[in-house]
Amino acid sequence: MKKSSIILAVIAASSLCMVAQANSVTGSISFSGIASVGGGSSLATDTHFTSINATVQTGSGDYAAVPNYYDSLTPVILSSTGTALGGASALTPGLMSDYTWNPPAASVTPLWAFTTGGLTYTFDATSMSSFYDATARIWDISGYGFADITGGSTSYVWTEGSWNADVGVTGSSFFFGSAASVPDGGLTLGLLGCSLMALSALRRKLS
Predict the structure, then answer these.
(1) Which residues, in sequence order, are CB contacts of 184 under 8 Å at separation 6+?
(2) Residues 87 and 151 grouped into a single domain
(3) 86 and 131 inside one domain
(4) pLDDT, the chain, mean
(5) Which of 24, 118, 155, 178 is placed for a possible disulfide with 159 were both Cys, Cβ 3.0 to 4.6 Å?
(6) Which domain holds residue 107?
């Protein structure tokens, strides 16, 4: 009988911790497309984006349901104007902000944002670093920031994550690729901690 009491008490304590524990965004998302750059006489000396058009390529975790280029007739298309290419109504438009990477901007708010399926996905960049690979003719841009999802039945908190972007030249065109990811496991660790605290309290009470 005493054993059952301990199990029930631990489950109850863990449930209370679940209510108190905010939902963090988890997963990753990637984009690819084309971009225009400026500010220099060549890619090596260019300083900023003047336009970006990118399509969602892959998504996992909380981004798994985002329509992408490979399995959807209405993929999310992000651009620096926030409108779909050619104004196509069949596409889901989103914003991919232009920004300066040489020297790196202190922050970009938002780095990208879009709405699909009744949910608004946002990522704000709070730091940035950049490096030009002269051999590959690619700018490697990366940093940290915070992701959020709003509009659904789940209440998320701004979750810290990382992001990266590459811009280079193929033929006579610039290519653009970017990705962002947020960590997993925060909720699991939180619940484990709550359970251990509940067990400790019960042991003191029953001893």
Answers:
(1) 26, 27, 61
(2) yes
(3) yes
(4) 78
(5) 24
(6) 27-182
Whether residue 154 is found in the same domain as residue 201: no
* Residues 119 and 132 grouped into a single domain: yes
Inter-residue contact 20 to 187 (CB < 8 Å): no
Provide the β-strand partners of residue 34.
53, 175
Q: Are 79 and 53 in contact (CB under 8 A)?
A: yes
Predicted structure pTM score: 0.77
**Token code pair at residue 139:** 């700018």
143 and 204 housed in the same domain: no
Q: How far apart are CA 96 and CA 52, in angstroms?
A: 7
Same domain assignment for residues 140 and 66: yes
Helix extents (H) in the chain: 2-20, 186-206
Rounded Cα distance between 186 and 173, Å, is 41
Rounded-to-integer distance, Cα 187 and Cα 135, Å: 43
**How many domains are contained in the chain?**
2
The first and second tokens of residue 22, run together, are 């905010």
Cα 135 to chain centroid, rounded: 29
Which pLDDT score is estimated for 193? 37
Q: Are residues 134 and 200 in the same domain?
A: no
Residues 177 and 188 in one domain: no
Of 90, 72, 76, 67, nearest to 33 (Cα)? 76
Would you state the structure tokens that stand for residue 64, as one six-digit string?
């798994």
